[in-house]
């Protein structure tokens, strides 16, 4: 394997997403998470058209005691650049930012990001139980004894937004309704049957104000994304999707240190990503947003600048975030309807790339004149709004 080409002295190399793929998703009872990693990696490499020998960078988190060492060994890779950043659901956008920086600087040729989980199957088989918290050590020791679970933290933040800005239960429910409508056009989505606002509101209460359909599905699945330096783009099988700008930010670990429950760390990561990409939120054609709960979608839309603070409730009404809406959001159905196997951040990048390539089938977003979208943003959130990574992608 040859060494990575050096970055130009006049400018860093451009970095493109050249391969994306999903492993089997939804209900997968007969494979291991390692197998899902391998399945996704093989499919992403095939999608790129590049030989695996080009891959000298690898990023993975969430599996094994020494991720990404164990997963790389399972895949038969011996990378010279690695990343095992773990910041919850935002992990993959942050990893993509690190990988893009490494490739741009000449420290790697091509970096493979891969994820796989059998979270649903493991619970059904009794291999694990559902967890209520992230542990009871360090700062968390002051919250866990009082039963402050992860979902309760999101629910409390949602209630604060409702109190401060008048956001309604019906508006939060609209997020779930639109996600399901988008999923209806996605044959790979786990749940595709339409739901109504009334059905969302009438569901069993999980954590006030969240009923069941306000919460993400639990699924199995995996996916992979391959980033490469611009000099490899002529050898790829499909048109590149360029990484235009990235941003990352951490906000807090304990709720007592969160200055404002109505502001997520995407307010910083998004601003940085848009500034570095040289674009504005108004330029973006679609958004893929981490949606473990409906409130996450609403507040992230505000913090990314698609509407003003406090106006997220009105923004998500009347199908404005649907496939034919003003700003299509979570076009595959998101974590609320498509899939959510533990950490979903990498799926956001896969869907954004598929949309920009025009490969989304019945759920394909179109601009005026039946043109393909040109700009997309993927924004992941980790923990309980503790971390955020935002990536701006473009065809040009």
Provide structural commentary.
This protein has helices at residues 33-48, 69-75, 91-104, 119-124, 150-165, 169-183, 197-202, 266-277, 294-303, 312-315, 334-337, 345-357; strands spanning 15-22, 57-59, 81-83, 110-117, 205-207, 210-211, 221-229, 241-250, 286-289, 375-382, 387-394. With 396 residues, it is an alpha/beta fold. It has a single domain, classed as Thiolase/Chalcone synthase (Peroxisomal Thiolase, Chain A, domain 1, 3-Layer(aba) Sandwich), CATH 3.40.47. It is globular and about 55 Å long.
Could you name the key traits of this structure?
396 residues; alpha/beta; Peroxisomal Thiolase, Chain A, domain 1; nine-stranded mixed β-sheet; 11 strands; 17% strand; disordered N terminus; Thiolase_C_2; transferase; Thiolase-like; acyltransferase activity, transferring groups other than amino-acyl groups
């Amino acid at each position: 394997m040859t060494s990575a080409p050096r970055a130009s002295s006049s400018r860093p190399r451009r970095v493109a997403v050249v391969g994306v793929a999903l492993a089997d998703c939804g209900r997968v009872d007969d494979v291991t998470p390692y197998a899902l990693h391998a399945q996704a990696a093989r499919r992403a490499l095939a999608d790129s058209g590049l030989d695996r020998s080009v891959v000298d960078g690898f990023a993975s988190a969430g599996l094994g005691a020494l991720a990404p060492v164990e997963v790389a060994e399972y895949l038969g890779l011996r990378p010279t650049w690695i990343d095992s950043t773990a910041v919850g659901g935002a992990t993959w956008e942050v990893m993509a930012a690190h990988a893009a920086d490494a490739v741009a600087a000449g420290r790697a040729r091509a970096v493979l990001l891969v994820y796989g989980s059998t979270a649903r199957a493991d619970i059904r088989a009794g291999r694990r139980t559902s967890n209520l918290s992230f542990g009871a050590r360090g700062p968390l020791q002051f919250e866990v004894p009082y039963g402050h679970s992860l979902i309760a933290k999101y629910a409390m933040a949602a209630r604060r937004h409702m109190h401060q800005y008048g956001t309604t239960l019906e508006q939060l429910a609209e997020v779930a309704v639109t996600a399901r409508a988008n999923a209806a056009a996605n044959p790979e989505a786990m749940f595709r049957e339409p739901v109504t606002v009334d059905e969302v509101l009438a569901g069993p209460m999980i954590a006030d104000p969240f009923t069941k359909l306000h919460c993400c599905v639990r699924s199995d699945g995996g996916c992979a994304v391959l980033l490469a330096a611009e000099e490899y783009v002529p050898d790829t099988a499909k048109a590149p999707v360029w990484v235009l700008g990235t941003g990352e930010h951490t906000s807090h670990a304990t709720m007592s240190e969160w200055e404002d429950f109505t502001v997520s760390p995407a307010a910083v990561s998004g601003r940085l990503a848009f500034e570095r990409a040289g674009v504005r939120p108004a330029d973006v054609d679609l958004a893929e947003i981490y949606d473990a709960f409906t409130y996450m979608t609403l507040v992230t839309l505000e913090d990314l600048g698609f509407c003003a603070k406090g106006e997220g409730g009105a923004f998500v009404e009347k199908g404005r975030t649907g496939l034919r809406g003003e700003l299509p959001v979570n076009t595959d159905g998101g974590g609320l309807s498509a899939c959510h196997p533990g950490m979903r951040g990498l799926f956001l990048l896969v869907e954004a790339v598929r949309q920009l390539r025009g490969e989304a089938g019945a759920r394909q977003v179109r601009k005026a004149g039946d043109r393909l979208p040109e700009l997309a943003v993927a924004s992941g959130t980790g923990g309980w709004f503790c971390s955020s990574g935002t990536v701006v992608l473009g065809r040009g």
